[in-house]
Design brief:
Helix content is 6%, strand content 45%. The chain is mainly beta. Strands 22, 25, 26, 28, 29, 30 and 32 form a 7-stranded antiparallel sheet that branches. The protein is globular, with a radius of gyration of 31 Å.
Length: 743
């Protein structure tokens, strides 16, 4: 799979099937190596003599002044370490300078990430990617692949800038706070081939003297009181016994610290472990920031940090009322307590040993074979009375055995208990993780809810892990709604299992089915990325009842779960109008007035042979082609005229939809040379368009253009002013798709 947003071609990125995207620049020969991870091919550099060897991209790529760019690659070299650079070129294709990464601290034949970022110097027109190593002899080999060039990779929704999230450019967004110094380092770290957010550089915090040490991010992004946020980053402790931590801090507008919530890493070793902390911003919060540190460090110990994030807390299940801290147990046991019995509660340890979400779980231990009751804190459930709610949690019996009864305890606005809705009691399933559920209807006056579990250990020294606790209003699993103004049907699917495969069809009353389009093309055996999926079907027919049929399966060949929606019909409105739609860019779809009914022809390729002394010719024919003709439409305003130009600009296959009863089905068409004619006076805004069209097959691989997870917060984080936004993007569509000028 191509790296998202890569300015490099896939051949240059993966070095498959050849090295045509690369040139030897200094003291080396290049060839195609083997054993790569994003395809078998690698860029193999072999030194000609002792000294630095370099290779560069064969193409120069245009850049925009003031825009930061990043390059990274995976490297492998058993003899000498590597580095990567951005080579800035002027309009004459002459080198201005090179922004280099640090060289990797150690050589390693294991694939590891190298990365650099920088801003073009004055006079830059283009950039090249350069990879380098400095052997002490000839015939030393280094390999590179999985190469990226583009705007800096960052976590969608991160309140922090790219330079605060990663340390590829400098440490300017970080400051030593207590008893330490900070610097960039480039240790040899192996990241998954398709994980692009962690880079070659890390922040190294070096303890000055024995004692506590900390560093913090200087950025203070805006935060909203009452919103739950999560802070996270990768921590690499100096020893497995070191107490390292990440801390989420909230400040007032006057820069007064309100709260600091710390989460310690229970490290199983000295690798890189993502540690999370979450907290609700208190009243008067204006800003947030992130800090990291080590407790009781030893002088000269080094703690390393990568990929810092502050974001709104993730939702384990869409609509769940359980805060992240109480659902995932990344910091501690949060608001959970033992209300009766001998059970004890603790966060699991070490990092990653027991977890469904994040890296930790709630550990319930009972020394005796007795019953205990544990309960969460109370959480707002809104006007819950009479509504059905679903409780779901994951359990893992790790010692002994248990029976479990699940409850939702309801409260009114004055915190008075209104009683329980309960499941039956049953033996906790084992081994491994299991998901348990309970459905309950909220009683009158209910506005709050808590999760309550009756846990009976049926053996001494029993232990149970609990994770990913969720309570949400049980809404329909499949729901449809039509929007006549945009001619779009919205299909909502809930309570999906992430990682399962999904296929979605649109069905009409005659029994025919058509696959529905998603971001990657037609949705057929596509991996589910979230528990709730919203699909906007802009290709649904007009004036015809349709339903949606969905199959969900754990893997190919497994008997699927099926869902069928209610029927929905889009009103075509005035029959004088028709729709022209771009399947890949539905934001460009528009409704146009028909100037005249189209006339169609169906050409056919034929060969004619006249046989001597035979009256009739012999005709050999191919199959007759689809419809061809002219769509003649009006645009009535300058805005409509500009919109139709925009729709036609891409040259993509379009969908033409007319109201039923015109004797023409919906048709995918390729539009030829379009002509725009005036109606009369030059000041008249009406135009008559002649659109020569040919019927074509429905595009299969075209996906609905989107920028997954991108929000206005990302735009705010990446751009200091609206003027900066205007300088980087040509249109609002480009802002939405994060498609920068020159990228």
């Amino acid at each position: 799979m191509a790296i998202p947003g890569n300015m490099l071609s896939q051949v240059t990125e993966t070095v498959d099937p050849n090295t045509s995207g690369w040139l030897a620049k200094l003291n080396c020969t290049i060839s195609k190596g083997t054993g790569g991870r994003s395809g078998d091919g690698t860029l193999r550099l072999s030194s000609t003599a002792a000294g630095e060897m370099q290779a560069r991209t064969a193409t120069s790529y245009p850049v925009v002044g003031g825009q930061e760019y990043q390059a990274f690659a995976d490297a492998s070299g058993a003899t000498v370490p590597e580095r990567i650079g951005l080579r800035w070129m002027n309009v004459f294709n002459a080198e201005i300078s090179i922004t280099w990464s640090l060289s990797t601290a150690t050589a390693s034949a294991t694939w590891h990430r190298i990365s650099v970022s920088g801003t073009p110097p004055l006079g830059t027109a283009d950039v090249q990617v350069v990879v380098s190593a400095t052997p002490a002899a000839g015939s030393v080999v280094n390999h590179f692949e999985n190469v990226y060039l583009g705007v800096p990779m960052r976590t969608p929704g991160n309140l922090l800038s790219a330079d605060a999230e990663n340390i590829e450019h400098a440490t300017l967004k970080w400051v030593a706070e207590t008893n330490c110094s900070i610097a960039r380092q480039a240790p040899m770290v192996s990241w998954p081939v398709d994980y692009y957010l962690a880079g070659g550089h890390v922040l190294a915090l070096t303890v000055t003297a024995n004692g506590n040490a900390s560093a913090k991010i200087t950025e203070k992004p805006a935060a909203t009181a009452g919103t739950e946020y999560v802070g996270r980053c990768y921590l690499s402790p100096p020893t497995s016994g070191s107490t390292t931590w990440v801390e989420l801090r909230f400040y007032t507008a006057a820069d007064v610290l309100l709260t600091a919530t710390r989460s310690n890493l229970a490290a199983p070793g000295t690798g890189y472990y993502e540690q999370r902390v979450s907290a609700v911003a208190p009243a008067t919060t204006a800003y947030a920031t992130l800090a990291v540190g080590i407790t009781s460090g030893t002088a000269a110990q080094v703690m390393r940090i990568d990929t810092a994030v502050i974001a709104t807390a993730p939702v384990i299940r869409e609509g769940s009322i359980i805060p992240y801290a109480d659902a995932s147990f990344e910091k501690d046991v949060a608001g959970w307590t033992v209300t009766s019995g001998v059970a004890t509660l603790a966060r699991s340890t070490p990092w990653g040993a027991y977890a469904v979400d994040g890296a930790y779980a709630l550990t319930v231990s009972s020394a005796t074979a007795t019953a205990s009751t544990i309960r969460s804190a109370r959480f707002p459930a809104g006007a819950a009375a009479g509504k059905s709610f679903r409780l779901q949690l994951y359990t893992n019996v790790t010692a002994g055995s248990w029976t479990i009864q699940r409850h939702i305890r309801w409260y009114d606005a004055a915190n008075n208990s209104l009683g329980l809705t309960s499941s039956t009691s049953g033996a906790a399933p084992t081994p491994d993780w299991w998901v348990l559920t309970h459905n309950g209807t909220a009683p009158a006056l209910a506005t709050q809810a808590a999760v309550e579990l009756t846990l009976t250990a049926t053996a001494v020294s029993s232990a149970l892990r609990i994770d990913a606790v969720q309570v949400w209003e049980a809404l329909p699993l499949i729901e449809v709604a039509g929007d006549d103004a945009t001619a779009v049907v919205t299909l909502t699917l809930r309570e999906l299992t992430v990682g399962y495969l999904m296929t979605v069809w649109r069905a009409t009353s005659d029994g025919s089915r058509t696959l529905v389009r998603g971001p990657s093309g037609l949705i057929q055996s596509e991996a589910i990325a979230a528990d709730q999926v919203v699909i906007e079907d802009a290709e649904a027919p007009l004036g015809v009842p349709v339903t949606y049929y969905v199959e969900i399966a754990a893997s190919v060949g497994v008997t699927p779960e099926t869902r069928t929606s209610d029927s929905v019909t889009l009103d075509p409105g005035d029959t004088q109008y028709a729709w022209l739609k771009d399947p890949g860019r539905p934001d460009r779809n528009m409704r146009v007035m028909m100037a005249e009914a189209p006339s169609w022809s169906r050409p056919v390729t034929q060969a004619e042979f006249r046989v001597r002394r035979r009256r009739n010719t012999v005709i050999l024919s191919d199959v007759r082609s689809g419809l061809e003709g002219n769509l003649v439409v009006f645009t009535q305003t300058d805005e409509e005229r500009a919109a139709l130009h925009r729709l036609l600009d891409s040259g993509s296959v379009l969908l033409w939809q007319a109201a039923p009863g015109h004797g023409v089905d919906d048709m995918y068409v390729a539009v030829g040379a379009a002509s725009e004619g005036r109606q009369g006076l030059a000041t008249d805004t009406w135009r008559t368009w002649q659109l020569p069209v040919k019927q074509v097959d429905m595009p299969v691989t075209v996906g609905v253009a989107s920028s997954a997870g991108r929000t206005w917060q990302d735009v705010l984080t990446e751009n200091a002013t609206w003027a900066e936004v205007l300088s980087k993007y040509a249109t609002w569509e480009d802002v939405f798709l994060d498609r920068k000028i020159g990228a």
